[in-house]
Design goal:
This protein is an alpha/beta fold. It contains 8 helices and 7 strands. The chain has one domain: Rossmann fold (3-Layer(aba) Sandwich).
């Protein structure tokens, strides 16, 4: 890609950010008193995925009146070396609950098992029914091209629900540890999280079992700064907005 093409890509991404601003960040005073307040679901494979991939945007959406639900497809059963699945799940569930308190989000746990997630008819139905019950206006989840199989499973289940629920919500993909997990991620939309970056960090640091502090500094801090450079602000989160007219129709 030459420099001219890179500028074209950057221009498209920055233009896309205005769409997120229009759809998601409606007038705060109107939303705070509206009986049909909008809801955002952030659906991650494990405890810590919604927070690291989307924590700043969760906080910004909450500031403008959205109800925020942080959905965990698993409880992190395989995520603590030397712990049984039940013990790890208990620890990581509490960490997610603590993080959600900081993010002013409601935690919701699904029934899949960390490291042994499935894609089958029953799991498609489970995800679809959860989303249908919550009635979100916007959903964020993993980008499907990812080195972690649980991330891929989560992404595909949400995508299927979006189609089968007649595209009833806006669908955005977030990134996690791009380059080592998320691959080939070219954002269409950005959110300036500068004002809430410290609060996001505090929420992520709740996941102590994951040795999160050095991990955050090595990956997530740098990603926020890099996306901020792209969006011309100190810190940002980046997303890919999937639209109905970019997806083949059943």
């Amino acid at each position: 890609m030459n420099r001219r093409d890179m500028l074209k890509v950057a221009g498209t991404a920055i233009a896309g950010a205005a769409l997120l601003g229009t759809e998601a960040f409606a007038n705060e005073s109107n939303n705070s008193t509206n009986s049909t307040r909008k809801k955002a679901l952030i659906i991650g494979a494990h405890p810590d995925d919604p927070e690291t991939g989307c924590g700043g945007t969760m906080l910004m959406l909450r500031r403008v009146g959205h109800e925020i639900v942080s959905v965990y497809m698993t409880r992190g059963e395989g995520g603590i070396k030397g712990k049984t699945a039940n013990d790890a799940a208990a620890i990581r569930t509490q960490e997610a609950i603590d993080a959600c308190k900081i993010l002013n989000a409601y935690p919701l746990f699904m029934t899949q098992i960390d490291g042994n997630t499935e894609i089958n008819k029953a799991r498609y139905i489970e995800m679809r029914e959860l989303i249908a019950k919550e009635k979100p206006s916007i959903v964020f989840t993993h980008w499907p091209i990812d080195s972690h199989p649980d991330h891929r499973v989560c992404s595909h289940l949400v995508y299927d629900a979006w189609r089968r629920l007649d595209y009833s919500f806006e669908l955005y993909y977030f990134e996690v540890m791009s380059g080592t997990q998320t691959q080939l991620f070219q954002p269409t939309d950005y959110v300036d999280i500068t004002l809430v970056a410290d609060q996001k960090r505090q929420a992520c640091y709740c996941h102590k079992s994951q040795n999160i502090e050095p991990l955050y500094e090595e990956w997530h801090d740098r990603m926020e700064q890099f996306r901020g450079l792209e969006f011309r602000c100190p810190r940002a989160e980046a997303f890919i907005h999937l639209r109905r007219n970019n997806s083949d129709i059943l």
